[in-house]
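Appendix B. Extra example for self-study. Work through it before the problem class; the solution is given directly after the inputs so you can check yourself.
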Amino acid sequence: MNPIPCNARWWLVALASALVWMPGMATTTHVDAQDTVHAPAFTVPFSSYASLEARKLFQRMLEQGRNAPPLDGPIAASRAYYDKINTARAKLMERLYPVTIEQRSIGGVPTQVVTPKQGVTAAEQHRVLINLHGGAFLWGAGAGGLVEAIPVASVGRIEVVTVDYRQGPEHVFPAASEDVAAVYRVLLKQYPAKNIGIYGCSAGGVLSGEAVAWFIHEHLPVPGAIGMYCGAVAELSGDSARVAPVLDGSAPTSPLKLADLPYFKGARASDPLVFPADSPELLKQFPPTLLITGTRDFTMSSEIQSQRLLTIAGVDAELHIWDGMWHSFFSDPEMPESKEAYAVMVHFFDRHLGH
Amino acid sequence: MNPIPCNARWWLVALASALVWMPGMATTTHVDAQDTVHAPAFTVPFSSYASLEARKLFQRMLEQGRNAPPLDGPIAASRAYYDKINTARAKLMERLYPVTIEQRSIGGVPTQVVTPKQGVTAAEQHRVLINLHGGAFLWGAGAGGLVEAIPVASVGRIEVVTVDYRQGPEHVFPAASEDVAAVYRVLLKQYPAKNIGIYGCSAGGVLSGEAVAWFIHEHLPVPGAIGMYCGAVAELSGDSARVAPVLDGSAPTSPLKLADLPYFKGARASDPLVFPADSPELLKQFPPTLLITGTRDFTMSSEIQSQRLLTIAGVDAELHIWDGMWHSFFSDPEMPESKEAYAVMVHFFDRHLGH
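Solution. Structure tokens for the complete assembly:
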């Protein structure tokens, strides 16, 4: 073989220098003149505050994320993938939290009415909860709704109506808001507004806020209380939009924007019926609001910002966060963190709904 | 110059490979079998939720952090450094929030009694707040207490007694708890316990929780409400202990442990009078508690965990977080975030203290 020419020595030096100077090799944090943090590679152990059960499920959550079909792939694949996961979760939940499930069309919208096997308590006879499932306004109908409704119905001894609202890509905003309003109008014949609660996770958390804005727009009374979990009134942004994908194993990803979801095609992000966060006038009419998230949830900052804006608007906005927990963590009923979240949800509606 | 031997070619290849394989060069998150996240280098823009005023102060905060004397250096240097910063802040605050400041020994402990120039309102005549300043149980006496007391006294139209409790390294636990108790005993002659609130930031947040535990231990009645900001009942740990030093420009640092502070020399970390978080029996006797932090505060996770444990214990624990905000952010009165935090503090004590 031929000897390498001498100037290769300088190339070696340059390469070695690159090892030191390339941004990826930085060992300290640098903040540039645009106030952007350039974080070096670093390690984060699993949170010592989180439970052993959560630690066991962490790798399963990572695997589910790795195996998930791409958000922009065929919708049938995504729906089948998440439906399988949610069906298994709902089955497990039914063992832990015995309930009766009835398919019912309410106001022309398909719903599942979930009631506790132990019976609805006397105190909850005159109250009802509406659940709006998660799934990026793309999937989660059916089993996804059951996963959010079953533990709350059972722990709260209350009836929960989970709504299969219209989603993208077949439907666009405000189809889901209209469907929630259709169900709500029927329930208003049976319950005073202050005795009705609405809650949901992820897209369902976003839709819970949008529904309240929609009701105000439609001159309907607002419900007694709402819960916006893992998604709220503010567009996704802030520190968690960048940090959580690192902590939950999904990085690198471009930060997800709700406005980019197929369901919001053609909608204006400046429309307060899409993001009520931008309308103090709407926010101040919101009922008491529960916000739930985790430190490894990319929506954490939008939950935090939603609490901030609701508080400024004079609304009682209660924030609960679990350390080390990921997006929609309480879909897994095995963790103490999930059981604590169910208790917080039930306690919140119990304190705030009318009697 | 002599030609480089041919096998240098292989070394070049090895070096180039190292560029790809060295952990610092990873471009995706990897979670190992011990559930530790290996984060690649990544960037985090300044939070779009945070105010323009906060963005302007971000670089100043970074600079103050860079210039700070080391925690294990001469104590006089640290005290002088922070006293200069706090004196400037207190001066600015006095312009924004006119108050009267009186040096007073209460129960043999030096305090500063801060009252609003506009006068204490009739509703607040029978209430008082005790402030416990921050500063790692090392510094912050004097001006540091004023920074925490002035805006609250002025906005709340209430008297605030800020306590110069004994600190390390000259003194060790439980000297500060004893000093707070000495002041509290005197105030109890004038006010019912339920009309007294206690709050503090950082070490002062930790001490607020320790003081309640100490009162219970001493068979004193608990105060009506407390505020534990940027430090609470749980030892520092969790996701923010790793992530915040990256976001606030201080990485790399070994995560700070409260138990390692000079003040806790000789104390047992398992002592519930040091970390009440470990004692459900103590926690359930806590009064309503306000917790405040930011997403770039290394104590965020301990605040979150404190809320979690207090909630499990049945205590009304209210958590407020501001996105993009750093440790003790509301010491800077120029930001809307700080003004919002003062309003949350005042509103919280107004709702929870006795009349």
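Self-check: Residues 1-24 of chain A have pLDDT under 50 and may be disordered. If your reasoning did not lead you there, revisit section 3.
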